[in-house]
Structure formats: C-alpha cells, structure tokens
Amino acid sequence: MGPPTHPRRPATPHAALLACAAGPLLAGTVLLLTDALGGVVGMPGEAVSYTAFTGLLLACLGVPLVLRLARRVPAPGMTAVAGGLAALLVAAAGLVPGVAVFASAMVLAGVLGGPLLVLPRSAAGPRAYVWPHVAALAGLAAAAQVAAAFTDTPDGALVVAGVAAAVLAVVAVRVPRTTPGPGGSAPGRRSPEENDPARSDRGRADLNGRVRVGGSSSPSGWRDAFAAARPALPAYAASGAAVAVTVQGGLHLLLFRWNMVGSDPIALLAWAAVPAVVIAAVAGPLARSARPVPWLLLAAATAPALAATAPAPWALPAAFTVALAAATVTAAGLDTAILGPAPAALRPALAGLTAGAAVLAGSAATGVLALLGRVADDASALTLTAVPIAAAALTALRLPEPGPTAEPAPASPPLLEVSGLSAGGGPAAVRDVSLQVRAGEAVAVFGPGARTLLSAVAGHLPPDRGAVVVGGTDVTAVPPGLRADLGLSHLVGAGTRDGRSVTELLRDRAAARGRADPGTAAAAVLEVFPSLRDRAHEPAADLDEPRARLLGLAEALITGPRLLLVDGLSPGLDRVSADVLAATVRRLLAEGTALLLAEPVIPVALSVCDRVHVLRRGRTAAELTAPTPEQVHHLLHRGGRPA
C-alpha cells in the first residue's frame, strides 16, 4: 500500500452552534429594551419596536438571496462577514444614539442578518438535534441578562450585545466549507448519505448540480424546500408565536398589573431563561422524534394562560420557562422530521424557510396581542393567543415520522487511491495531488495537470513522488501493460490503430474477452452507438476524434474494465451522440466500473460524475460534490473558491 492520504481535519460543529446564538442575542437585546431605547434615541418606544421588527422582516426576506449567494461564496465566510457587520451596526447604534443612526442601523442589520437565520443551523447538521436551538435559546437568555444589567443605559446594552454577537458570528468562519451537493460534507469526509448507497444515489439523481427534489429544479431549492417543509410550517410558526406572546405579554403584565418597573421585569425573564436552557438540553432526546411535538406545543400553549392567571409576580417566570423550553424542543423535533431526511443541499433552504416562519409568526403574534389588548383586558388577550398555538398542535399530529435509520454501512475501500502524487513539469505538472475513486463512482478532474495526472495513473508517466494504488495493489512502479491486467484501461482518443474495421476491432476485443459469440457481442455494442454503426465497416484508424472516443467506450463495454481513465469526454460530439455517451458512462458505472475523467466537457461530466476535483497550479484547489457548471467555470477561470 502507498502512503496514507491526509484529508483536511474538519472543525468541530461548535463554531456553528456559537453562531446560532448571535442572532437571538442581537434581536433579543433590542426588543427587550424598546421603551428604554426610545428615550435615548429620541423616538417613541413603539417606533423602536416597529424599526426592530422591520429589520427582522428584512432578514427573513433576504433568505432567498442568501441561498443564491451560498452557491458562489463560502457559506462560513458569508456568515462571519455579514453577521459580524450586522452586529457591529447594532453596536454603532449604541455608540452614536440618534433617530437616523438607529433606524439606518436596524435596517442595514436586517439586510445583512439573513445568513444568521440560515447557515449556522444548517451547518450544525440535523443530527445535532436540539443543540442549535439550545444555542439560540442561550443567546436569548444572554440578551435578557444584558438588557437587565443595562436597563438604565440601553445604548451600552447595544454596544455590549453587538460586540458579543459579532464575535459569535465571526467564529462561523471555523465551520468547514461545504458545497451544495448530496453529501454536503467537507472535503476528506463522507456524510451519512454518501455512506448509504441508496441515499447517495437518490441525491445524485435529484441534485444534479442544482437542488432537484420532487421533479422541480431551482438554484436554491426554494420551491422544493417549501414543499418539504409545508406540513411543519404551522408548528414552526406556533413555536415562535408561543415565545413572543408569552414574553411580551408577561412583561406587560409585570409592568401594568404588578407595577414592576426598571430592570425587575427583564431580570425575572433573564433568570427564567436559565432553567429553560437546562431543561431544553436535558430534554434533547425528545427531539430525536417528531412524536412529542404536538404535546410540546400544547405545553407551550399553556404558557400564555399561565402568565395571564399568575397569582403573583414570582409565578410569571414559570410561564417564561415553559414557553422557552417547550418551543425550543419543539423546533428541534421538527428539524428531525423535516431537515433530517432531506438531502444536505436542501437543508440551508429548509433552515431559512422554517426560521423565517418562526420569526415572522412571532412578530405577527406580538402585533395581534397588541390589537387584542385594545378590545379586551390584558389577561384575556394573552389567554386568547393560546388558541392558535393549541390548534397548531393538532396539525402537528400529521407530521411525517422518518423511519428507523440503520447505522450507515462502512464505505467500501477505494478502487483507485492516489496519494501525494507529483509528476511532470511545466504548467501541466501536478504537485501533491491525492484523490480516491470507488467502484461505480465517477470523478472528474479539471484544470492544468488533469491529463498529466491520468498519464501518471495509467503508468505512461513515472511520478516524481507519491503512490498509485489500484484494487489494493501499489502499482506506482508497475508498467502500463501489467496495470491493464489489474483491470485498468486508459482511453486517450484515436491513437494509432491497424487497418481493422470498427466491427472487426470490437469482435476481436470480444473474442479476447472470451465471449461465446464475439460477432453478436460486437453488433450489440454497435446498436448502442448509432454514429459508429453507420461506419461499422470503415477502418477504425479513419475515425475522427469524437467517434474514436465513442469507439473507446464501446471497447470498454465489451472488456468491462474495473477502472477506466478517460482523457477528455465528448469534445465535438452532437447532442444525440453526447447523450448516448452519457448513457454509456452510466451503464459502466452501474456495472461497477470506476471512472476518472480528465478535462471532460463540463455539462456532460456533471451529469454523470459524483465528485469534481479542480486543479490550480498543479495542486488541488477544490473538491466539490455535485457542483453547478457555474461553480466549475468560476473556479477554473476566475480563481474563486467553492461555495
């Protein structure tokens, strides 16, 4: 065996979890101090609330744009930059209090805050279950602590919360970069979908460069996400509404019924949030199934009524704790049902859509509560808000329950393993390239040095260092002819052939393979390639380059190599021949052949390949799973980074 490969060590999900707390810390601090901020900024408290809710609305409306940008810009970097700037804008509003500065900061923070709704939670992964939501709840608890500590100086609260949230957002840069593909995994790491052949095949068929589920196709998967999340959207909305009305209504009652002023109402909320975080973390196992969601929503629905009927101020924190903990575990259980079974490429869209539903429902619920307060007393208005939350619990009874998931089978060993390979010289040299190709898998290599890599793997070019292992055998120093005995075939185009016709060549290949009726085998293969069938009796050496490549694939169908190296794919072919070629490649893959393609035509390659390696200056610049043609072009011609 050659030397082992050294894939990049992925960062832990802690960075994503920390980033999940940034948004709630920012929004919670502003919303809890609206009245106090009004006096500092110079505008009514209601106007401060409207401005803050406008920022939240803009963040939700910006989710589709975030999903489109995530295909071109590294998602961790976008979260760190946009989220960090949004947080610093909030801090700036505290440093320079004033109507214009505050309103502008809230609007711009909302425009930039979209990634905080989408990317940290989707990066944490569905198997994190409750932890992204516990982190968000911890951010809200921290906002309450900051608001309680800075009630008399709310501008200072904005500065503290803004700087802290900026730090949390910037930490997101430590999240491993992934590409929107079925695996959604970082380079050097295989996801559960990739380890599960059934799920991996489904992802490749559905996500051929774009998110493609249920028959539709869109760059961000927005329509697909809505179709997948629609059964759970009422429950997500109810969880957001339960938190909003319980907190807003409870603080209102503490102020006007129990005459608590200053920092005392927010301090009760701050201390109530601490046990809510603990309860949500301990109750995490409940989030591994969607079955408890209706009962958790019913528990959340009791919180507004509990706050409305509290006999004393000390009883209000119980309502806060119930609402926060129940809503948190509810959202985590919904993630298990909705995000869990989804392909990895669809999870950012699902995360954005479901987070937007919760945030918008919470914002709308506070407005409804204010309207009800004008026609009924505060306690009755708060109790009435529990009705739609309880109704959402009934809709949650119909949530899809994912079937039991078996432990993923261990990945099969690679049929081809290239480790630290360096070969050739000049602009086409390769340096320290490592890759793996498994049976039934197709991998494309783009960029200067791709053909050099194939020549070194085939044995035509001795490597300067590194190793090539085929089927568990180190063939680094094995001559090309002996590599063919291991099932390796290198297709380089027309080459030099003798005077045999196309039919004779295929018949001889079938005979050498031991076929009982070589003529019939050759005729059957020619039926697959109409452009070759029309020239069946012409000398193979007279074929042009595109048809010579088709002939090479025809030979591969007869000989059945274990590993096929294709130097270029489909250049100069018409649409029909290109489709035939792609179908042939899929047939070879279905029969277990491993394919390594160098510099193929991008659209045809992406229709059949599982993964793509892009070389720059002879080194691997990116390894992508199911990329779009735009991503590959961007990396090849503009030196970009994968999204």
UniProtKB/TrEMBL annotation:
Single GO molecular function: ATP binding
Transmembrane region(s): 48-67, 74-93, 99-118, 130-150, 156-175, 233-254, 266-286, 293-312, 318-338, 350-373
Keyword check for Transmembrane helix: yes
SUPFAM superfamilies: MFS general substrate transporter (SSF103473), P-loop containing nucleoside triphosphate hydrolases (SSF52540)
Domain ABC transporter: 413-642
Keywords, ordered alphabetically: Amino-acid transport, Membrane, Transmembrane, Transmembrane helix, Transport
Low complexity biased stretches: 210-220
Compositionally biased residues, Basic and acidic residues: 190-209
Cited PROSITE patterns: ABC_TRANSPORTER_2
A biological process term (GO) from this entry: L-amino acid transport
Keyword Transmembrane helix: yes
Name of this protein: ABC-type branched-subunit amino acid transport system ATPase component
Organism phylogeny: Bacteria, Bacillati, Actinomycetota, Actinomycetes, Streptosporangiales
